[in-house]
Amino acid sequence: MALRKFRSVTLGAAALAAALVLPHAGFARPAAKPAPAPAPAIQPAANAPKLIVAISIDQFSADLFAQYRSHFTGGLARLASGAVFPAGFQSHAATETCPGHSTILTGVHPARTGIIANTWIDQSVARGKKQVYCAEDETKAAADPKDYVASVGHLLVPTLGERVKALWPTSRNVAVSGKDRAALMMGGHVIDSVYWWKGAGFTSLDGRTLTPAAVNENKALADVLAQGAPELPLPDWCAGKARAIPLGGSFSVGTGRFALAPGDKNAFRASPRIDRATIDLATELVDENKLGKAATPDVLSVSLSATDYVGHGFGTEGSEMCIQLQQLDLALGDFFIALDQRGIDYAVVLTADHGGFDMPERLGEQALPASHRVSKSLLPEALSAAVAAKTGLDAKDLVLSDGASGDLWLRRDLAPADKARVLEALKAELLANPEVAAAFTADEIAASPAPTGSPETWPLIARAKASFYAPRSGDLVLMLKRGVVPIPAPGPGYVATHGSPWDYDRRVPILFWRKGMTGFEQPSPVETVDIAPTLAALIGLPVAAGAFDGRCLDLDAGTGDTCGAKP
Ligand SMILES: [Zn+2]
């Protein structure tokens, strides 16, 4: 149930140790035995876990994992005793929530998931700003015109949970998150139960009735919201971080403690409490769907959004992120204990949809004076005016985008000759700007070779190609220089962000854990598209050659190979 478990104490070390040493085969597979005859249907691997728990922590960068790792005592400490890949990569340039979540359980880059960004411009849609949200059905009218109809229709490929269900129809595919796009991109199109936070409670796809698990959770949350809640404790090891950073007027961040005023839904959402609520609902969905109890494996996706809201609202280096990560660690610890208590044989993977970067005002004080906020000269109105002046064309909607970086679209009614002139003028305008690192046209990206090799050495155009899908991508992709934050002016709730092709936004931890396994650390870069092939091999799910961009990671620390028996 919701939110009653907030506390500052750490998990009992003895209980955790006991949980970790219980005899179990771990990830190792038994040696193959000669099969007497072909089985009538494909069976799961002999030692397959009964439940895959795929967790995404929104904006949990490899930098945050490294910074806080030694302080974790709960769920993150448990996972850090498993197979640890501290240099995982969301390899693509468009390091946003929707593209990032789309890679985790599909095993392919956004170029193949089709999820090129959180929003893109589609000039054929009949609406003012021509923006399409990655997880909406823009052909359907929402009840509220400011709203949208949530949908996974833009995702072009199946998720692991869908593949599992297609082969083993009794398997269940369940997803829950603080964000609709996260739950939908991890869950996919064929999903037994899917929930996300909206307004003041959890909701689901149009036409679905809330099940008792969600109804009960929402009731518990309504009580918490009505009553409010006190500040959360500041861990001793974060005392030095609690320092106010003024951001103009009376607005400052850096010392927040998440006191919850009664009825403050937005403060609830941007706090550790939303993660605790998501985990509580996940636990209830395990029971409601009897996950981990059938002969074939189930998939439960859990995306925890608070780290992202905290990062955007307060940056990554104040008291707020410190409290957030401690509370998250404790909530995950309780989640795993709850799964243990149910006797479920589960395997966990934990990663993030993208990394993150602190706000320039604090970075400037902390040895990174080159970081600054982007100027307004790169916003679409300014670029339209500049290019119109060079070409003599009408400036209105000449260049479209949803910010000061990423994809840019040209007005679609331009004659081919004019389009070529505008593109040339726009590229020259961008490259003359000292804040710009690179600008690639769609043709240049399409013609560039597919990325190969280790993702940290990919050139910028390869990063762009990994999140380029011609039917949706812009006419040009703009990349800011390292350290240039694409928020021209900070405001409450939005002081720092991600989305760049730089490694602070691309690098995320990837952790695998299963009871009884022997842990190991592999510091060489791997990718989030490696997760789906790794899990598919672990459960014995056959997948056609070429279906994944990633590779199977062998989770056996010794001579065994969890990829070796891949059908
Ligand atoms: Zn974000």
TrEMBL record:
<comment type="function">
    <text>Alkaline phosphatase with broad substrate specificity.</text>
</comment>
<keyword id="KW-0597">Phosphoprotein</keyword>
<keyword id="KW-0862">Zinc</keyword>
<feature type="signal peptide">
    <location>
        <begin position="1"/>
        <end position="28"/>
    </location>
</feature>
<dbReference type="InterPro" id="IPR002591">
    <property type="entry name" value="Phosphodiest/P_Trfase"/>
</dbReference>
<dbReference type="InterPro" id="IPR026263">
    <property type="entry name" value="Alkaline_phosphatase_prok"/>
</dbReference>
<feature type="active site" description="Phosphothreonine intermediate">
    <location>
        <position position="97"/>
    </location>
</feature>
<keyword id="KW-0732">Signal</keyword>
<dbReference type="InterPro" id="IPR017850">
    <property type="entry name" value="Alkaline_phosphatase_core_sf"/>
</dbReference>
<feature type="binding site">
    <location>
        <position position="118"/>
    </location>
    <ligand>
        <name>substrate</name>
    </ligand>
</feature>
<feature type="binding site">
    <location>
        <begin position="179"/>
        <end position="181"/>
    </location>
    <ligand>
        <name>substrate</name>
    </ligand>
</feature>
<dbReference type="GO" id="GO:0046872">
    <property type="term" value="F:metal ion binding"/>
</dbReference>
<keyword id="KW-0479">Metal-binding</keyword>
<dbReference type="Pfam" id="PF01663">
    <property type="entry name" value="Phosphodiest"/>
</dbReference>
<protein>
    <recommendedName>
        <fullName>Alkaline phosphatase</fullName>
        <ecNumber>3.1.3.1</ecNumber>
    </recommendedName>
</protein>
<dbReference type="GO" id="GO:0004035">
    <property type="term" value="F:alkaline phosphatase activity"/>
</dbReference>
